[in-house]
Each structure stands twice: as C-alpha cells, then as structure tokens.
Amino acid sequence: MTERYNAKEVEAKWQAAWSQRGFFRSDVEEARAKYYVLEMFPYPSGRIHMGHVRNYTLGDVVARYKSARGFNVLHPMGWDAFGMPAENAAMEHKVHPAEWTYRNIETMHGQLAAMGLSYDWNREFATCSPDYYRHEQKIFLHFHKAGLAYRKESWVNWDPVDQTVLANEQVIDGCGWRSGAPVEKRKLAQWFLRITAFAEELLAGLEGLERWPDRVRLMQSNWIGRSEGLHMAFELEGPGVGADDTLTVYTTRHDTIFGASFCAISANHPLAERLARSDPEAARFIRECDRLGTSEEAIERAEKKGYASGISALHPFQPERKLPLFIANFVLMEYGTGAVFGCPGHDQRDLDFARKYGLPVTAVVAPPDADPQSFTIEAEAYTGDGRMINSDFLNGLSVTDAKEAVASRLEAKARGARAINYRLRDWGVSRQRYWGCPIPFIHCNACGLVPVPEEELPVTLPEDVSFDAPGNPLERHATWKHVTCPKCAGAGVRETDTLDTFFESSWYFIRFCSPHASNVFDTREVAYWMPVDQYIGGIEHAVLHLLYSRFFIRALKRCGYIDSDEPFTGLLTQGMVCHETYRDAEGNWLQPDEVERKENGVLVQSATGKAVTVGRSEKMSKSHKNVIDPTAIIEAYGADTARLFMLSDSPPERDLEWTATGIEGAWRYVQRLWRMVAEPAVALAPVGSAPPETLDAPALALRRQIHKTIAAVSDDFDKFAFNRAIARIRELTNTLGDLDSSVKDAAVLLREGLETAVRLIGPVTPHLAEEMWQALGHETLLAETSWPEAVPALVENESVTIAVQVNGKLKGTITLGRAAPREEAEAAALAEPAVQRAIGEKTVRKVIIVPDRVVNVVV
C-alpha cells in the first residue's frame, strides 16, 4: 500500500527546487512574446487572509499557464507599505511604524512563499523604502513642473479620528474609509494632482479596455461624469446685492427653465460667505453644512436643507418672476459653478426640497401618452422624455429641441454659454500623517514654495518621532521640519504633509519592470514589459486605485517617462471569500473553530455545548469572526489543497463559500490523484511511449477524451474559467481510474492520460503535479515542461447532429458521420417520421443541404 501523499514534505521539496534553479526569474528577451501578470500588491497588515490566498492563487495559475504556453512571464510581488495602520500600531504598541511594517512584511513573505507562488522575488520592494519613494518624489517634482501638481486652499474632507484629509473617493457613507468616523469639512492648503486635465482621455480610453469587466468601466464612466449643459446668468435683487451682481448656474436641464421655482447656492459659494458676514443665522447654517463633508455620497444621503437668503434671482425669460435664493446643503461648490436652479417637477431632489419649503411645482415636460392640459406632478418628479408644456415659446417642442432653443436665445443675449462639465475633481493628495512619502517642497517666506533639488532626494522621514499626541508628528518635529531654503539660503520649513498612499500604488507596476534601476525607470525594460497583460484584484478598487493608475500612466507619458496609453490591458475582479457567521446565546460572534456539529447536525459552542445561532454567509471579517486562518489550512492540508478548493468551487469573479466539506473534498481528490500515479490501475508503458496510429474503438474513445480535455481545458484557462477546467480534469481522471487492463494498448494510453492530467493540473496544484511528474519517471521538472497540445483530428467529433427542416421550419434532427455524402444525408432526413408527416401528400421540389449543419426539404 502506497503511503499517503505528504503535502508538507513535498511542498517544501519543490519550493526549494524552483528557488535553487531560479525558474521564476524574469529577464527581457526581445525574441519571445512577454506576458505580465500581476495581482494587486498587499498592505503588510501582519498576516495573509483567505482573500489574499484566492487573489494570489488566481494570478499564479495564469502565470504558470502562460509560462507553459511559451510566454516570457513577469510575475512580481511587493508591498504597499505606507498608511495609517502602521501609525495606529505605533501608538497602540509603542513600536516605530517602520519596525512594525518590516516585521509584518517578513511574516507575510514567508506565508506567501509557503503557497508555492511563482513570484520573481528578486523584484520585491516595499513602497516605504527610500529606494522606492526617492523616485516618487522625483516624479512629483516633474508633475509640478508640468503643471500637473499644484497647491491651493480648498474645502476638504477631514477625518477627525485619523486627523487627516480624505479624497472624496475615500469617504464611504459619509465616514472615513479607514476610521469609520463621520467626516467634517475644512478649508486647508492642499496639494492636488490635475486628473481633470485627462478627463476626456480617461473617458474615451474606457472603450478600448475590452478585457475589463463592463461593470468597472461603467463605474469609472459614471465617476468621471461627463455632461453637456449650459451656464446661465441670473440677475439678482435683494439686500446687499449690487447692480451688477449676477448668479451663474450650470445645468443640464435648461429645457425646464420655465418650471424653475428657486435657485440654490453652495454653503461655500462666495455669495454665501458674503451673506454670512452680516447674517448670524446664515453663518450658523453654513457651519452645519460643513459637518457633512465634501463627498457627493454623503450629501446625497443627508436630509435636504436650505436657508432663505432674502435674495431673489430674476427669471431670464420672465424677469417679473422672482425665484427665492437659498443656501443649500446639497449643492457642491466643486461641481459646475456651485449654483443651480431648481425645477421641482422634473428632479426628485428639487421636488422634495420644494415640498418642504412650500415652493410652487409646475410640470413643464409631459409624457408622450399624457394629456398636456391636465398633467401634474404629485409625489414623484417626472424625469422621462416628452413634450414641453407651460413653457412659453418652448411649448410643443421635444426636450432636445427645447434645450437647443433655450441655449440659442441666451447665447444671443450674452446671458448663457454651452459648456461641458465633469463630475471628476482633481485628486487631493495631501495627508497630515507621518507614515507616508514626504512631499519634496520647502516653504520660504522670501521665495515662497521651493522644490527640493533633485540631487538632494530622497527627503527621508525622521526616525525620532513621537506618537503621544494626535495629529502629524512631522508638524511638531523640532529639527527635521526646519531647513535652509535651497534658493536664497534663508530659513525655510519643510512641507509636513505626506502623499496619499494611492500615489505609491498608482505607479508600482511600472517600477516592477526595472526595480533596481538607478533612474525612475529603465526605458528598455518598461517598453518590453508594459502594459500589464492581466491585472487581478477586488472590485472595490474600481474607482480609486484603477482610475488613479490610468491617470498616472497619462501623466508620466506627458512628462516623457513612458510611452504606454493604459496600465492594464486585462482586468479580473475576483469575488470575496465568504463563510457562515455564528453567534452564541448572548449574541456574541463566534469563530468557526469555536463551533462543532453534533451527530444530529445541530451546531453547538464547543466550550459550553450550548446551541449556536447560524447567520448568513458573509465576507470573512475579523469583526464577525468568520475567518479561517490560511496558515492553519496549509499546515493541515497543504497549499495545493487550498489552491484546488479556491479554484474549483466557484468562477473567480463570483463570491466563494468556504466550507469544511469543500476543503476536505479537495484533500481527498489530491490523495486520489497521487494514488493514480503511485498505484496505477494498469502497468504503465515506458516514458516516451506513443500510442499506435491505429486503435480499436474503446482505445480510440479514450484517446479522443484525452485530447478533447486538453483543448477544452486550454480554452477554459484562456477564459479564466478555472472551475470548469478542473471539472474537466476530474472527468478525465475518473475515466482513467476506471480503465480496464483488458483494453488494448491500455498501458500506453494510461501513461498518455496521466501525463496529460498532470500537465493540465500543474498550474492549479504545482507541488503535487511535480511529484506526480517525477513518479511517472521524468527527470526534468514539470515547471520547465511545455503545455500539452491537442491533436486536431482527435478533437473533432466523428459524428455531427444535423437539423432537418421542412420549408424552413425545424422538424427534427439526425446524427451522421462528419462529411457524410449528400445522398446519405438526404435519405436520412426524408426517413425521419416527423419529416414524413410534415411532407404528407405534398411534392418534394428540392432538398437543400448545408454539410454537417442543416437539411431543408422544400415542398
């Protein structure tokens, strides 16, 4: 009896062999086609979780498959190492962020290595290393020189817990994406990247990203938010208004101008700020608005409130109509002009606001099937297409024609101008924290803002910092902060803000091409490896990281660094790893290892024996304690078993349900595969044996299955349908396991079948496959063995199913040998009972035959 497959010994053995032979080292080879596969690199939080395991397994399968197909594969790994958690750890555990980060990197590197991932570890780097961020600082200086980085005062989202500024994209449901604290709005001098300069390019470029999920492309398109509208000027009257004061609004619904019942301005609009200086109630309302933050999401969710300013805006076509002007909490200063007119009949937000403040509601667009004389607005605004009503010179026009008419008249009167607007805002990259890349600028009273000379880069972080008080330690550092101005040699102060960590992750994939280059990039290596052919990561990065990376590639191109148009040709967004949730009798969350199943199927708490409440399956999270430790799974079952389960149970883009029965089933299949090689059902033919050209029917059927499996699995791998590929491999091994020794040529066919199965499952369970390959008698490693090729003649079906029609209507099907003679096809079709019934007493005029596809009997 063969010993059980010992995953622990085998996996260590082959990992050492791959490392010693440098199998996964990558170098430029101009004569070979390249393939750059990359998973989103992790933050070194301390330990990998099951989401990491799934993500990196997917990338590893792609890398190993493409390598076997002959591609020169680049598959690197590094660490997204700056960020607030390191500072939080420093405060909580009294350890320096760098020490905490590098200790975590060492732990996680070991965990990833234990998974047998085919990384080129020679390219590993951490973004917190000065060797990395000195190049980042140089890039920032060049962005500034090109006008793509700038500093200005701006209203920002302030996280009161993390004590730092957040980009709008980092505000989730009105709260900081890391701390969960409600954000506040503050006006601070901030650094920005001019992403809006590429808004149209970023939008147009989405069309060419055919290997990106439609969902991600739509999310980015919506975030960029291109709109075509009109700037309209309203004359004003009321307290404190001058004769020349006007209010310019931006609107995409100028067709509804005759339905306007109010105008509204942002709490940060210059007119609102002017009013607040003399109106305490206006000032109080503005302070209340500031607590909402600046993100659209938070503002959309908040109750819509306004403050009546006492000023009126005069209707541009009916100046006798005076529209009350409100300061409103739902108008963003950063979008359009910070001012809108409200048409309650055709915008739900405006309707809710009008009902709240008793403003008139007039329908000015009637649905196509409505009576224009009686159509009114009740609880819901009408936002569809239709014809204009109650709109003076617009009556009877379509919405499109009405927009054109309004724009033309206002432009003729110099009271309006057509405009294209974008929802996208420039990217605020200033963060008030220590553990980030220092921004390489100096503030000088005499010279103003002065860039640090490139020869003095990197500006490194001081190590002697204290986290015993809230806020940014750099701001209160006694020596690091104070420097000599490089321009006038006078006293200067360093910029104490550091860069948003998304800055590092927006270009790391390019640095992987030449991580040891003394310059930012090695032009030859970047030209060879870029763009990334397959990028893999979570859907949660659709707007943040992926959009920033697309901007970066364009900004770097403008600065002359690279010549790529897009960073990632293909994108795979993997689903989450989920697990049931458990609570005890008091409602406390329980970990899976604190729960056991009794013989009657009832789940109880192991420590108490009390019944457990089983909740829904959710994404594994520490807060719900439904996590499974990958290290424990690898220790118990081996990395290959974990990889097999991760890939076989669900398509990669869907969520995966982790179950104990699932991992045990994968383990049993691993053992079965090993036994098939260690104890073959039939004595195997020698290595290198080839099946004879002529085979009897059972042998030919088996050989056809082998080669059809090769073709199908190859196609599945190309489409990332890994679960389907594994199912096909299982079907093949089931057939091989049942092979009868009495089948002629069984020995040579079993060898071909087992070798094929081993090569096909190699990217999925690489350690097991190497061990099986060796057991089959091969002296070379599977890692250096090419992918199997299917014989076309064996893949094609011997028979085909052909549709039979009578006068073009389907009446049945017949099965014939491929390329059957015309006479045979016609005879078989006419012999079909259903066809005979359809013909009846009619005369057959002709029979049209499309070989191997259809027979059409014309009667």
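Second entry:
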Amino acid sequence: MEQYAVTGMSCAACAARIEKAVLNVDGVTSCSVSLLTNSMGVEGTATSDEIIVAVRNAGYDATPKNINAKTIDYSPDEESLKDRETPVLKRRLLMSLGFWIVLMYVSMGHMMWGWPLPPFFDDNHVAMGLVQLLLTGIIMVINQKFFISGFKGLMHRAPNMDTLVALGSMAAFVYSTVALFAMTDALVKGNSDLVITYMHEFYFESAATILTLITIGKMLEARAKGKTTDALKGLMKLAPKTATLYKDGTEIIVPIDRVVIGDIFVVRPGESIPVDGTVVSGNSAVDESTLTGESIPVDKEAGDLVCAGTLNQSGYIRCEASRIGKDTTLAQIIQMVSDAASTKAPIAKIADKVSGVFVPTVILISALTVIAWLVLGQNIGFALARGIAVLVISCPCALGLATPVAIMVGNSVAAKNGILFKTAVSLEETGKVQIVALDKTGTITKGEPKVTDIIPADNKSEEELLTIAYSLEKRSEHPLAKAVNLKADCEKIIAKEITEFEALPGNGLRAIYNGKRILGGSYKFISAKINVSDEIRAKSESLSSEGKTPLLFAYNEELIGIIAVADTIKEDSPYAIQEMQNMGIHVVMLTGDNEIAAKAIGSKSGVDEVIAGVLPDGKAGVINNLKKKGKVIMVGDGINDAPALTSADIGMAIGAGADVAIDAADVVLMKNSLSDVTKAILVSRATLKNIHENLFWAFIYNVIGIPLAAGVFIKFLGWQLNPMFAAAAMSLSSFFVVTNALRLNFVKLNKAKNVNTIVLSDSKADKVIEENDFNNGIENNIQTEENSMEKTLKIEGMMCGHCEMHVKNALEAIDGVDSALVSHENGTAIVILSKEVSFDTLKQAVVDQGYKVID
C-alpha cells in the first residue's frame, strides 16, 4: 500500500470526493482516505504522479510519504502526525474572539442590557451598522479559510462542510449589508420608522458568531483528534536516534542509520536498545512492556533476542545487530498501526455513502426552506434565518469521523497491550466471532516437552533412573530427549560415559555402559527387548491416557523405571478458554495427536470440542468446515498453521511464532499468551460498540437538527432555532464524536464479561472428533450432556434493556434457575440451572411476558 499525505480536506465529503477521484484512475484497485490522519492509502499499479494529478483535479493536494529502504526515518512520520491544526486554530480563535466580543457589545449589549456606548452612536443607527459591518468583515477575513475551501469545493462541484459554513455566514453578511444600505436610504428620506425596521434586520452578529463558534468546535476537534494518535507517536519516540557500536576494542556513538547488520553494539543500564539483535555477551533484565504490554522485565543472556525500543534495566550487554530500520519489530508495529488507520472498516461504508451526497442535499434543503417560508408569507429576514440555520447546523464531519477515530483509538489501545490489528476490517470482524479454533502445540501448550513423572522400578532410586536416562539421551537429538536432559541438568545429575551409542528403528536407543546394555524408548520398543510386567504396562497406558509420552529405561536386561514427558499446558490457557466461553464463544482444539492424548489435553484445558488426528495440510479443510457453523478465528503459531490462518475469517498469530505465520495472520499477538485472544475480542467489541454510538449520534443529530433548524416544529411546538445556536450545535457535534471515541482508552481488558453471542449448543460438548469423521459431517452432531446445568433460549421481540429485565426476572423466578444472562441485541437468554428444569417451563415463563421463544 502506497501512503500519501493529503491537504485541503475539511470534512467527510472531501474524503469521499478524493476516494472517488483516485478510484477512477486506471490501475488503482483500492483507495482509502483518512480524514483523521489526513492520509491516503492506495493499492494498484497506477503511478504516484497519476494519483497526485487526480487529487489535485478534485481540488486538493497530495504528496507521497517516502520511506528510505535502509532505515525508517522516524522523524518525518512523527512530524506528519504532529498536531499543526490546533495552534493555527487557536490563534484564529483568539483573534476572532477579540473582535467578536466588541461586536456583541455593540450589537446586543446596548439593546438588551443598556450597556453604555460612545456618544457618537446616540441615535446614529448607520454608524452602529457600519461598525458591525467592519467588525464582521474582519472576523470573516481572519477565518477566510472557510470561504476559500468552501467556494473552491463548490467550483469543483464537490461542496464540503466549509461550503455550508461559507454560504451561511456569507448569506447573513450580504443580507445585513443590503439592509444597512436600505436603512441609509430610509434615513436620507427621513423615514425613521423604516430605519428602526431595517435595524432589526441586521444579522452581522450571526455571521460572525457562526464563524467564531465553528472555529471553537474545529479547535476542540483538532485537539481531540491529536490525542487519538498519541499512542502511535509514543511508539515512534521509543527508537533511539543513536547507537553505541563496539569496534576494535573501542565504543563509538553513531547515528542509528549507520548501523548495519552484523555490527556489535553495546547497551548500558537505563539505555534503550537501538535495533533488533542477539545478545553475544553479558546478562540483563529488559523491559519489553512498550512492545508486549508485559510489565515484568525479561531476563536476557547470550543467545537471546532483543528488540529495538525496549529498555535495558540492569546489566551491560553486547549484541549483534540482526534487523535494522524498517525490519525491526518496533518499525513493523508502527507500520501495522499506521496501515490499519489508513484502511476502512466495512461499517464505515454507510457513512461514506451518506457523506458523498450530504452537502448538496443540505444546500437543497436550505434553499427549499427559504422558498417555503416565503411562500407561507414570512418576510425575507425570517426565511433567510431558517435557511442559514439549516446550513450551519448540518455536520458531515461527525459522520466522517464516527468510524476512523474509534478505529484509531481501538488500534492504539490494542497496540499498548501487545495486540496488532493489521486492518480496520480485522478490528471490526474479530468481535463478531462465534468459534475460536486453537492449535494445540505452542498455542494451548508451551510447545516445549517437559518431564512430568519419574517412576523408578522397585529397589531403584529416582537418581539412578535419571542417571541412566541422562547418559543415554544426552547423545540423542530427539525433542523428548531434550526434556530428559533439561531435567537431569536441573537435578545436577552427572552423565556416565557410554559406548556404542545407537538410535534404533522403532523409537529406541541403545548403548553400552560398564560392559552392560542400556536401553531406552517406548513401551513397544522396550517390551520387545526385555520382559515387562503387567503392572508396568498398565502404568504406561495410564500415562498415555493423560496425554503423556512414557519413556522406559532398562539396564543389564532389567527395567529401572519410567520417565513420562509431555508438552505442558500454559498456565493461563484454561482461564483464557473459560473467558472465551463466558463470552458465548465455542472453543475448538485442533491437534495431530491421537484421540487418547488429544482428549487428555482437551479435558485439562477445558475446550468445548477436540478435533484429533488433523495433519498440517488438513487444518485449512477443518477451518472451512467450521466456517459453515459461524465466524471462525484460527489461532496458531507455527509455519504449518499459515494455510489455516488464511482460511479462517480471522487469522490470529501468536507473536512468538514463525514470521510466515505472522504474515498470514490478520491479527498478531506479541505475547505468547492465549489470554490476549480474549483481549483482542474485547477491544474489537468495545470499538464496534463505540462506532455504533458515534454513528447513532451523527445520524440522529442531523435527523433532528435539520428539521429543527428549518422551522418544522415552529407551528406545533413553537421551537425556533437561531442560526447562532445552530452554529454552536454544529461546532460541538464532531467534538462529541471524537471525545466519545477517546473513552476507549479506559476500556478494561483484564476480565471478560458474560457477553452472549450465538451459542452452538445448549452445553459444553465433551467430545473428541477424528478428522475423517469431522469431514464426513459428524461435526453437526455435537453430543451434549444429559444433565446440562446451562440452557440457551433464542427469543424474538426483545427491544431494549427493559425487555431484558422482564425476561430475566421471569426466568429467575423459576425454581431451579440460579441466574439468567439476557441480551436483547443477540436475542438470547443463557439460563444457569441448579437442577433440571424443562424447556417447556422456561419457554412458558418467557411467553407469559409477551415474547416468543423460537429455539
């Protein structure tokens, strides 16, 4: 995606106009314009010159954002996000307020409150009118940007918000000027009554107030918009501008862009790490919270990776640079957050369509309003005031900002917690998930086999068993051998010298120690070499049923014991899975393990469903079948997960996984923690809710405001809106939308609430499905427990929180119902039972309240 900085935009109509112009360029496949960051992302084969010409022909300007191939130049990006609008608007506002206060004193203070005026104003209405004209003219010059941008858009047949402001204030000014000349003529003719009449036709203060209040709103909006990019600017400030290189025994401080791959750099306590690298000497604790959100420092020693922008807290370390410039983890995070802000969520399309025709429609409504009131017999002043009010109360900006500000803040909140949404689409869609498919190895489990049980034979000690096992496994490269070796190292076991080591077919090892044979391997291998008792066979099968791999060891033709090895479940996995279930999500585990081992891991982790025997190339097929039942998130970390990540509605990669998995994913979790899946869903749902609130406000504001300004309610309710109050309402509407989006900064991600979505079954399924059975359609026959303690009702007719309360109270009044979680939005009621309650009883309780139970 090519990024461009766009200038000249003032509202959503501008953004829609630019998108339309660029999409008409041959070779452009997609275009997304962000009013929030004044940027544009374009994909396709069109050249930058063709794109820039299209933008200029539409009445705006664009310049490409260039990124050096060797290094990301952080300062230009940071500079592009700098809040330049607020200082300019602040100066304009202060100057406008100075003249506006004088104008209001002259025009309103004397008439309404009897405030004193200089003697030459006594009965000199023309002088008073001329002063008002002069002061208003000065305020219009100060705020000339509204007129330049507004009439420029009109000439390009692309009217925008500035057009509405310019037309409204100009109409008030021109009409007041005509009234002033007419009053002068009446004064010359000696018609004093007519002079007073024309004096009341002055709308100079309305023209000036419209401009001043809109400027206040623009400044508040600019300040709030500036805060939405604080997180991104904070990330950009993390990268040091210099690095300390270690060359020929000396330390040299150089600019960051002079660091090349392979350079050795040093980092002292309290300094930030300049580029990604590998520790070559020294030990330290590094604070990685800026990238992962994890507050606990991570110990680093020789061979460990370090990332740019993280803080070295304790020791002195030397590192070898491995990734620089745009390839560093920090730079990629910045790019992801920036790209996500440049894309548009599907929900934004509604506002974009409305914004494209909004301003012309408002101008037409304003003209019809003036004509209608004149036809109804009102004077030109009254009719014009209604038309001006329609122009200045209408706010396309609130519509245009409703989605992008929430997306930007939501993305920033996620990034602070080590969650990276690559696009606005992924941020929106993640919250709609109904099924989460989890790869077992490295996602639910740690992906690192560990010794779980040491069972020595009779008359043998654990130390003796570990010594023999260590002596044999030390020569092996098998992953399970590493688990045994690690355990022996921790126990400070010393390996014996062995000879004639050999890895044999059938999962076995053989060697000679003190002239006697040592054997190690699976039950099948060992039982074929020596006699194994039924007790040992039963114990081996028991360990296998728990998802563990039993390794048997023999010395001198005698069994000396069993060491069980297993890929252990991450500490937070069961809790994270329970949180997903509390949110109404069906959790599935995919694994290539056999049915017994898979069931053991599935039972311990608490998933709803286990699909076993899934080969790496079969995961994508399983995901496609799951998608028939609802929206699916696939969470994985390995290279063999990439096809499944791409096949799912949302692919989510654990950040510790391979780069190809991250490339294939829509969401990247920087931490290797399953709890972040829940956090990502919560961020998405909170953002989507915020967007709905913003869009509701933007639409309802205009739906109510425009008829009110036009005077529709005057006859029925006596409501009449002065253009000045209309301007005040418009100035605050965008500010409200942006401020509401900023509330996302306070969303709590530590604990998932019981949020109801579509539930796939009445209870958790304690079932294991082989891949072949799954593909044959057995997935549609999920078995449920007979004595379910939880039932879900699908209900029609609930419209609000009061409906929820009625249904909840009715269900909880039934004997045996502990609680009921009711959602009118999803049309569901999840009933928690302490004893069996029939479906008919639950259904009747809901029907009695006037609602329909459909499932």
